[in-house]
Design goal:
Structural class: alpha/beta
Distance between the termini: 73 Å
Largest sheet: 8 strands, mixed
Strand order of the largest sheet: 2-1-8-7-3-6-4-5
Order of helices and strands: HHEEHEHEHEHEHEEHHH
Helix content: 25-40%
Strand content: 5-15%
Number of strands: 8
Mean pLDDT: 76
Shape: elongated
Radius of gyration: 22 Å
Length: 325
């Protein structure tokens, strides 16, 4: 065999092996389907190589959520809202799907258009993001969002259909991603004012909220700019939080017992956990809107504190939130 034929045979063998490895990577058993592996491959490649994502986890008691079991947590297992007593550890191998048995609402601060990529990196299964409807009208981008099974929403008002879709997905065991700020934060402040929509969806779906904090995200003048900018990203993954679910459960329990003396005694056990100055009769007087606002405020305040930011930066948005700086 000539040298040229030998080189050609080696090249063909190398190509065949690479092709076989690629096919095995797509069809092998695992968390993702072959289609999901194909569409998320660029996300993982860019996140590891161009953006050099470091993943850090709150090192505390893992909270598993199972819809068929009790949703309550003991007060001693819930870290303080100020982030004290919390350790942080790096771990690229741990995934959210390893910590959660069911669905969840994943929330994060929002600095650039590719923030969902960093969250997907640590999810372990598909995350259905709620995305402003105008992006679905853009050429190519709209097709890509539909491939990722994103949920189009009208961010200028209440979008009932989008909310119902998000609730149904979360309740069926899926991950739904939402940004409480509702838009990209291009200011010097660590966080824009937040809305309670994510907590409302979590409350109605009966799932916990998982807070994430993203630092170092690349920014630019357009939504495509970050795709061509290198960065060093830090993603801090907080504990699943089911405070709102427990508050609603407490409210329903009190209603059933007609706020008897026994119910009042149970109610007092949660007094120390009520944020934002809420007083007795506590859960008995809170509707879903009030619980959602208190819940999202609590979770974002803790996320800020754990990231080393000032927790007093958390503010609820008003009716004209889109016009706020």
């Amino acid at each position: 065999m000539t040298t040229e034929n030998t080189a050609l045979a080696i090249l063909i063998s190398f190509v065949l092996l690479a092709l076989a490895a690629m096919i095995w990577g797509l069809v092998r058993p695992g968390r993702y389907t072959p289609l999901e592996r194909l569409i998320y491959a660029p996300v993982y490649l860019l996140s590891r190589v161009l953006w050099r994502v470091d993943i850090e986890w709150v090192d505390a008691t893992v909270v598993e959520h199972r819809p068929s079991s009790s949703i309550g947590l003991s007060a001693s297992s819930v870290p303080p809202a100020d982030g004290s007593g919390i350790g942080i550890r790096s771990d690229r191998e741990l995934l959210l799907t390893d910590r959660l048995q069911g669905g969840a609402i994943l929330i994060a601060n929002h600095r650039c258009s590719i923030d969902p990529f960093f969250v997907q990196l640590i999810a372990g299964r598909r995350v259905h993001w709620m995305v402003a409807g105008e992006y679905f009208k853009a050429p190519m981008l709209g097709n890509l969002l539909r491939t990722y099974e994103a949920i189009p929403t009208n961010r200028g008002g209440v979008d009932t259909n989008a909310i119902k879709r998000a609730i149904a997905l979360a309740a069926s065991g899926r991950f739904v991603g939402m940004f409480p700020e509702g838009r990209i934060n291009r200011t010097a402040a660590p966080l824009l004012s937040i809305r309670p929509g994510a907590a409302t969806v979590a409350l109605r779906a009966g799932v916990p909220i998982v807070p994430l904090w993203i630092e170092g995200a690349p920014v630019g003048p357009s939504i495509f700019s970050p795709l061509f900018r290198s960065a060093r990203i830090r993603v801090l993954v907080g504990q699943p939080d089911d405070w709102g679910l427990r508050m609603r459960q407490q409210r329903e329990r009190l209603a059933e017992l007609a706020i008897s003396e026994t119910a009042r005694g149970v109610d007092e056990t949660m007094a120390a956990e009520i944020p934002m100055g809420l007083n007795e009769p506590l859960a008995a007087s809170l509707d879903d809107r009030a619980i959602s606002e208190a819940w999202i405020h609590r979770v974002m305040e803790r996320s800020l504190a754990q990231s080393g930011q000032a927790s007093d930066a958390v503010a609820m948005a008003g009716k004209n939130w889109l016009r706020e700086p």
